[in-house]
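Sequence dictates fold. Below is an illustrative record:

_____
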Amino acid sequence: MLSRVADNLYWMARYLERTENLARLVDVSAGLMLDLPQRLSPGWMPLVKITGSEAVYAQLERDGSEKSVVHFIVANDKNPGSMLSSIARAREIARTVREILPREVWEQINELYLHVAEHAADAATRRTRYGFLGRVIRATQALTGMFEGIFIEGDALSFLSLGRQLERADMTSRIVDVRASAMMIGPSAAELGAFETVLWMGVLRSLSGYQMYRLKTRERVHGAGVVRFLLADEQFPRACVCCLRRAEEVLHRLPNSQPLLRRVARMRRAIHHTRFESLQQDELHEFIDRLQLSLARTGDELARVYFIGHGGPLSLQASSASATHDPRSARVPGRKQNKHITASRLQNI
């Protein structure tokens, strides 16, 4: 397989996964606003923080209102990280690799793009939002089923899976970090405590994890349990460790993957050996910052090993970082590292 094709398939999968994740975030956030008293509502700006688009948002929008944030996340074509921009990029990539895509996959991506382009404004209206976002989620899930159900097993499917798993792990860690910060700090933290269960249920539902959490843990919904489930569970498909395990399984089938396997194994060990029940909010923030940086470096290493200047077949020559494809800037720690947790839990991620 040409490295250019592998690169395109990897990023097509990431953009499709991102499209689904954005739809989930907007949908669940809208429900969360209805479940909380207005004075305690976290507002819509956490969605902008989750997507890492604060700087772009400040340039394109004037306020943090529901209408502005939803338009920015869903329909603003000037936002390179919006749902519309993501599905447009996925469609353009799919067009360039149509010769290796099953016809049904191309048609589904094309239909999804046309639907989002035509109806993106529906997300701004509460009456039509649920139907629009639900259709986007179902369409992207249908594509995931097509990849697993009709694709020939080989390099193409491997890079599609790698893109999906790394994007999914990235988004899960962002959601946990931003939502936990909103609940545990700030002037309303004490009042929010009375609504802790509602808030953490919203986190689980944004990843379709509420029922699976109850089935797996058999315990009430609480912060430490949700964090542990979404970061460290081996069996929930959107948990970070499960995503990393599945990426590891794919990498074992690819040549020259030893550096990537070592990096992924370090991330899995670091998550497994962390007692999330004992972490303070700033320690959890530091931990996820390091995890985010390691995920970004994994993408860079993947590009170095396999996406060689978009030229010849897969080999070991160096190439530019894959981050040039991603409109989101790499995460950096938001505050000075806690020395104790850096030494004991973070340095090996």
Q: What stands out?
A: The mean pLDDT is 84.
